[in-house]
């Protein structure tokens, strides 16, 4: 898998460089730097897409069946949604906060020991179309929450340090709300498709497995965020804190459960 | 009426409050998290070992060892349901009247009083006006009263009901779960090849015709495992299907899932290798025979009056602190078989035989040694048999949930009123509108519309 490792390594470097350049651009405001940063992000994305496609061909299954694969898929999804948002809303500052998330995810993947990286054929439970549907919807949700988290961090930075280069508090609050709404819908779909799949495979749509439970906990936290805005009129700082709490729950649901708790999704041996 | 009494009013007020929602949600979240951190449904010894006997007992009484079925957890869900129902229904009347709105014909002052409003001379046609709204996917209704044209352009009405649908969907899902737990059942059964077992709560049986297990290459990693099952009722074969993981058998609402497989803990047959000890010191032992037999059977040593009974088998031999012989696990990590040796119907002794060393010690001089040479196990198929009449209610609730979310976030109710008063060659138009939420982007859309209408004229 040398080719795949090479693609992976290069995309990691691209994101690292893109992060640096995005930040540099916002300090010096030279349009040329911004273009290069975007190009590097795009290059990293293209290389990652190549790595994922290659892995799919070689392993003959979808490229998200273990922690290593899913981390790469996660970082790819973050960049994809970022590109869509950048194109729709023309928020050039977003790059500086999102590319670090992508490269941290890849960095963590690269630190995983070899036996988490190996291409393994699928055990019977995973041999189903529901694998693709369930995982993709969950990861769109996770990625949307990651970007919402970026907006939350930007909000708190703007609130505390009044950086002129950051967009208005109102805009950051509104974008946090929009991306959380997106993540909320996809996480709901992810939980539901997981339940449908579990019902096909094991006859139970809900068994309070730690992963299922924590996904629900995450969903409830974001539900609290949405309710706080609508019924209690929360805005701004309080929402940003809830946003960050929600993302902490996302990380625990995604990674913490697998490594710290036993159960169906466990890697704890 | 009871519903109007003061106590009922304050109870309803409590259940209408959004603080109660947050409190209930927080408690449910905390309890759910506790259920993932504290092992569920384990034996008391496990908790004593991890938390000490006092805390273990406390956990048990508090229901933390089976959180999701604890009475207080169910009570929290019930309270949350009541809260959701009360909140949703107390808001729905307001929503319905908001949707009905003020109708097509409004006063000029109403339009000019709206936050998004514009009034200007307009030389174009009414149809062009209507078309500019239709292009933005508005439904338009038009009415003319004494030369003045009134237009109401509206879209996204379902968006107002998104919240109600989403919240009711949660109730529907909980009802489905309740139906399943009251009238459904779920059991695990192990079935061997050729075996027929009765299906619980039903009058038919199921037979495992064959079980296929495939590994990836030389590894122990399972590639596929399938069971071919036949439903039998009144000695007649009704249907046969080969099931695998993700592909169950369905019959009369009961589902048979390929859940797992395993090796039976007890062997089907074992092989005892019998040696005769050497007559002289230093010489090799001679093999007498290999006896293949089941637990409970016996064999005789030819040329002698000795008979050997195979009493029992343990997979993982261990002598515990009470000097009892137990099996530490079901895996053949340290297999041993208990033999009793008889001579002329008289019991001589009772020994344990192991694979490599045979019988480590005979109580008295004995010319033979017995080795547990081999065991053959049956592979059983692990099926999950479930009946859940509530599952379709749950799926309906899930569909409602996704619909409600879609309506809430992506369908925004927007209305624009237009009044066109002809004045000679052209006319005066008064245009004003509002939106259910996301005022900022409605204002953008409104301004763009006005610009287009002005530009077209």
Shape of chain A: flat
Distance between the terminal alpha carbons of chain B, to the nearest Å? 61 Å
Secondary-structure content class of chain B: alpha+beta
The largest beta-sheet of chain B arranges its strands as 1-22-21-3-2
What would the average pLDDT of chain A be, to the nearest integer?
86
Total number of strands of chain A: 0
Question: Describe it for me?
Answer:
The complex is a heterodimer of chains A (269) and B (457). Chain A is built from nine helices and no strands. With 269 residues, chain A is mainly α. Chain A has helices at residues 2-28, 31-59, 67-89, 94-111, 114-117, 129-161, 169-202, 210-230, 236-260. The mean pLDDT of chain A is 86. The two termini of chain A are 26 Å apart. Helices cover 80% and strands 0% of the residues of chain A. In chain A, helix 8 (210-230) packs antiparallel against helix 9 (236-260). Chain B has 457 residues and is an alpha+beta fold. Chain B has nine helices and 22 strands. Chain B has helices at 6-16, 18-37, 44-62, 71-100, 108-113, 126-135, 162-183, 391-410, 439-456; strands at residues 116-122, 139-145, 148-155, 185-192, 196-198, 205-215, 222-233, 236-244, 249-251, 254-263, 269-276, 286-293, 298-300, 306-314, 317-319, 325-327, 336-343, 346-353, 368-376, 379-387, 414-423, 426-435. In chain B, strands 1-22-21-3-2 form a five-stranded antiparallel sheet. Chain B has a four-stranded antiparallel sheet with strand order 4-20-10-9. In chain B, a hairpin with a 5-residue loop joins strand 13 and strand 14 (306-314). In chain B, helix 1 (6-16) crosses helix 4 (71-100), helix 2 (18-37) packs antiparallel against helix 4 and helix 7 runs antiparallel to helix 8 (391-410). The longest helix of chain B is centred in the first third of the chain and has 30 residues, at 71-100. The mean pLDDT of chain B is 87. The chains are: A mainly alpha (269), B alpha+beta (457). At the A-B interface, helix 7 and helix 8 of A face helix 2, strand 7, strand 10, strand 20 and helix 8 of B.
